[in-house]
Specification:
Elements (H helix, E strand, L loop, with lengths): L3 E2 L10 H7 L1 H12 L7 E2 L6 H4 L5 H9 L4 H7 L5 H24 L1 E4 L20 H12 L6 E5 L6 H6 L6 E8 L12 E5 L5 H19 L3 E5 L17 H17 L4 E4 L8 H18 L1
Parallel strand pairs: 1-2, 1-3, 3-8, 4-5, 4-7, 5-6, 7-8
Helix pairs in contact: 2-11, 6-7, 9-10, 10-11
Length: about 300
């Protein structure tokens, strides 16, 4: 089984400038079903978690103001989204999906959230189209509720640094944050992850994979995690409008193979969230994301 969180409101209507990248939330599950990588039984519809689970990583005041639509105009502009009740429901559902995926990964070895990877959300603020930090919340949910999980590794391979995640876990030794991202990309001011690997513009498949292949096995040995979260953004593609890196679709798939095969070999449960992807052609986005699922389906 390949448990996959997907909810209809993942693609909820947004302003015109945001609609194109949101299409992937509708097209990706259709593609996976069409080609047989997943079946309808693999999909589950997530629900919002108890508020207490959100407050494991978010300030109560921020959560309440977000829920009630009381963010300041500056806060709203920083997130990049105009507030609406539908938007809040979408964000809290995404967070619930990643927590539920963590629960299922303990049973099946791997689980996915077709959305998720909202790594720019801080404890008391949102930014960069991220309002609540789903992987951070799910990591703390595991550490709080699952005694067998004592150490978590977050592998963030989105092209943008996971600044919110790094800040949330700055003083939490049970979570190791690893971010491999474009050095000159958003955010302009980076936070300090436990390990940051800033990449030059235009880096190609060979150099990217060599660096990751030298780093991740060593991290698994040193950190000794009990659980892994993988943010598999496809904005590392050369075709991406915002990424500025030079990976091909084949190289992006090799990246997924490297991460997931290591987790499989070490018998580490892993939750995969899809993160960013902003190529001009929706086909490039959907195919690169679909490759992540295809790799997992071949392994698990």
């Amino acid at each position: 089984m390949l448990p996959i969180a997907f909810a209809p409101n993942y693609a909820h209507p947004l302003p015109a400038g945001h609609r194109f990248p949101m299409l992937k939330y509708e097209l990706l599950p259709e593609q996976l079903l069409h080609e047989g990588t997943a079946t309808s039984a693999d999909f589950f519809v997530p629900t919002p978690p108890p508020v207490a689970d959100v407050l494991l990583v978010h300030a109560a005041d921020y959560y309440e103001r977000l829920r009630l639509g009381q963010l300041t105009r500056l806060e709203e502009r920083t997130t990049g989204f105009p507030w609406s009740a539908e938007l809040f429901e979408r964000e809290i559902t995404i967070l619930g999906g990643t927590i539920e995926a963590a629960r299922l990964a303990l049973q099946h070895g791997v689980a996915f959230n077709i959305a998720g990877g909202t790594h720019h959300a801080f404890r008391a603020r949102g930014e960069g189209f991220c309002l609540l930090n789903d992987q951070a919340a799910a990591a703390m949910w595991l550490l709080t509720h699952v005694p067998a999980v004592r150490k978590v590794l977050i592998v963030d391979l989105d092209v943008h640094q996971g600044n919110g995640t790094a800040a949330i876990f700055q003083h939490e030794p049970r979570v190791f944050t690893f971010s491999m991202h474009g050095a000159r990309n958003y955010p302009a001011r980076k936070e300090a992850s436990d390990l940051d690997l800033p990449l030059p513009d235009g880096i190609d498949d060979a150099h990217y994979l060599k660096l990751l292949g030298e780093t991740l096995p060593r991290l698994l040995d040193e950190v000794q995690p009990d659980f892994v979260f993988y943010l598999a953004g496809v904005d590392v593609l050369a075709t991406d409008k915002l990424g500025h890196l030079g990976l091909t679709r084949a190289g992006c798939r090799q990246r997924d193979e490297l991460v997931l095969s290591l987790c499989h070999r070490h018998r580490l449960p892993v939750v995969v969230c899809m993160g960013g992807g902003y190529s001009e052609r929706i086909l490039d986005i959907v195919e690169a994301h679909a490759n992540t699922f295809r790799v997992a389906a071949a392994l698990y």
